[in-house]
Amino acid sequence: MITEFIVPDAGSSPGGITAGPDGNLWFTENGVNRIGRITTAGVFNGEFPVPTSGANVGVITVGPDGNLWFTENSLNQIGRISTSGVIMEFPVPGPQSGLTSGPDGNLWFTEGSGNIIVKLNIGPRYSTCLLYDPTKAVHSGATEPLKLELCDGSGNDLSSASITIHAIGITQASTSISGEVEDSGNANPDNDFRFDPTLGGTGGYIFNLSTKGLSTGTYNLNFTATGDSFVYSAPFQVK
């Protein structure tokens, strides 16, 4: 059985459609310079204007940063839209004809007017919002409870029990000497941060770090997050 759903804006000429990370379907509206969102039940729950007039929105895809990315075929730009509808545009070398999320965590696209393939480095998916004072040092051998949130660029809490952050190593900032991560007791099995729904705005993470064997200095506890290859860090000091 085929079911048809009418897009709210007349003349919108729906184009590319993709499954978004929020569980909705996203599509282009080339005639009116917008991006639309529709649930799988056919309920339209958002139309978002692209800032640049005449952008001729084309391919739309989920990027490795968890946002939706799209081409602006008549312009030398690529756009990014979050699932909340916030759009940003980025200049690129030339007009694009394709866009895909690469296995290296970057975006790749072709330039239709030349024999060129372009890689766009998009950076980390999250910002790190610390819930402790990194300027206060602990005595060597003490336990340092590192508490933090995963945030967006505006500081909104994106932390979730479904996102695991995993400690991968300690780096001494002044001399770049790396070491193994040692947690206190069994508070953080497998070197995973523990999600605590009472921390921050809508939850956060805690890692009870043992500073045993660390000399005086400033350090970073390095970690990764589920679905993101970027290495994040949480600073701390030992005295």
Q: What would you note in describing this structure?
A:
- The protein is mostly beta strands and 239 residues long.
- 0% of the residues lie in helices and 46% in strands.
- It is built from no helices and 20 strands.
- It has strands spanning 14-19, 25-29, 34-38, 44-49, 57-62, 68-72, 77-81, 87-91, 100-101, 107-111, 116-120, 127-130, 137-138, 143-151, 165-172, 178-179, 194-196, 204-210, 217-225, 228-238.
- The strands form 5 sheets. Strands 13-20-19-15-16 form a 5-stranded mixed β-sheet, with no helix packed on it. A 4-stranded antiparallel β-sheet has the order 1-2-3-4, with no helix packed on it. It has a 4-stranded antiparallel β-sheet with strand order 5-6-7-8, with no helix packed on it.
- It is elongated.
- The termini are far apart.
